[in-house]
Design goal:
single chain, alpha/beta, Rossmann fold, 5-stranded parallel sheet, 4-stranded antiparallel sheet, 13 helices, binds uridine-5'-diphosphate
């Protein structure tokens, strides 16, 4: 941070009087302050000025997300509202500290991943009922369709869904050949990725931008094409997913082998993109102590609120062309100390504030606040099966 204050002063003084900047660090960037990179320096300066570290006692870093998501239900939730959205997800009830659920769950392992957290909390939870959407896509659009409380793992600002910590923190998809039962077990991934991150010196990381994943969104194409044209700068390839039919689905190339999260940490620059909704890889690659380029700001998970652009990751516009991506990667290559600081801060925010205890804490806070909004006495639905 100190370096940045100097850097910012350096930009300012370079605009006024170059001679005022005397020390080595300042001089290093002075020539560039008015160059093509000045916009980036300005954005970093703004981010550093306004950033304050959040205090995550009782998962407070994410408190505003619960507040924002529940605000629209401030007048309370009645039975009619609940019935309207019943088809939008799986119905759960908590009655006398037991958990009940619709007999059928669309994705059983996703339901298990959700239930793992709720079951832990049952002794402290009051009676309630809720609709949990296990699809990737949110359900309650602000402009059209029906309105009511539906829990989804990811959404954009266009939706009224209430965000919950995704099933895959514990169990469930997406499943790839390396993680055939679904990515799951965030507690184990944290340990493994964190260990490799600590063992891989910044100086030894490969000086390339890296991405492996399937073509769940065409926003990824620009990086793949850049990689084909500039393999010395970028190594980005499409892998197969379950929907793969032909090479057209991997942008007219054979599908690449999948790569483990820990292998990602070998590279200095890592890319995250939205998929069908937010992609699970964001939190994993932030733990690598590499710089994460996060493309698009629209798709969210609950913990994104604590991540700040230019502090924890490099923000990239979702409409970026390959030239824009090249420009940003080259900026980071040229300003290695800036890159290293973002990489370290990205690691710290996830390592310190996205532990399993934080996930449980978020679920607890969310369910307690939600239950207070129910305006009716919840009666046991005989169609549900007991889970706990
Ligand atoms: N993934 C991985 N290695 C790969 C390809 C994918 O670890 O080589 C992970 C990726 O990080 C993500 C999940 O598998 O969490 C699914 O990735 P994909 O790109 O297929 O879809 P997304 O969920 O990102 O839209």
């Amino acid at each position: 941070i100190n370096k940045f204050i100097v850097l910012v002063k350096c930009i300012e003084c370079s605009l006024e009087d170059n001679k005022k900047c005397t020390n080595g660090f300042e001089n290093k960037y002075i020539e560039e302050a008015n160059t093509k990179y000045s916009i980036i320096f300005k954005q970093i300066e703004e981010a550093r000025k306004t950033f304050t570290t959040c205090n995550n006692t009782k998962c407070s870093c994410y408190a505003s997300v619960i507040e924002n998501d529940l605000k629209i239900f401030g007048d309370g939730i009645d039975k009619a509202m609940m019935e309207k959205v019943a088809s939008k997800g799986t119905k759960y009830q908590i009655i006398d500290h037991h958990l009940y659920r619709d007999k059928n769950c669309m994705f059983p392992s996703r339901c298990s991943g959700i239930e793992h957290f709720i079951i832990k909390l049952l002794p402290k939870l009051p009676n309630m009922e809720l609709i949990i959407n296990t699809r990737d896509w949110p359900q309650i659009h602000k402009e059209y369709g029906i309105f009511g409380p539906v829990f989804s793992f990811s959404k954009t600002g266009d939706y009224h869904d209430i965000m919950y910590p995704t099933w895959s923190f514990w169990e469930g998809g997406p499943a790839i050949s390396l993680y055939p039962r679904g990515i799951g077990r965030w507690d184990q991934h944290r340990e493994e990725i964190g260990k490799v991150a600590n063992e891989t010196a910044w100086e030894n990381k490969i000086l390339k931008a890296f991405f492996r994943g399937s073509r769940t969104s065409q926003e990824r194409d620009a990086l793949i094409i850049l990689s084909r044209e500039n393999p010395e700068l970028v190594d980005a390839k499409y892998t197969k997913n379950q929907a793969w039919k032909s090479d057209a689905d991997t942008l007219y190339a054979s599908p690449a082998e999948e790569v483990t999260f820990t292998e990602h940490c070998k590279y200095k620059y890592l890319f995250n993109f939205r998929g069908v909704a937010a992609s699970f890889r964001f939190k994993h690659i932030l733990l690598c102590k590499s710089v994460v380029f996060h493309v698009g700001h629209e798709w969210l998970e609950f913990f994104y609120s604590a991540l700040k652009p230019w502090i924890h990751y490099v923000p990239v516009d979702s409409n970026s062309r390959k030239e824009d991506l090249k420009f940003l990667i080259e900026f980071m290559k040229k300003h290695d100390d800036v890159a290293k600081e973002i990489a370290q801060d990205g690691f710290k925010i996830i390592w310190n504030n996205l532990k399993m205890t934080d996930i449980v804490c978020y679920w607890r806070k969310l369910l307690l606040k939600y239950a207070k909004l129910l305006k009716y006495k919840v009666k046991k639905d005989p169609n549900l099966i007991r889970i706990s």
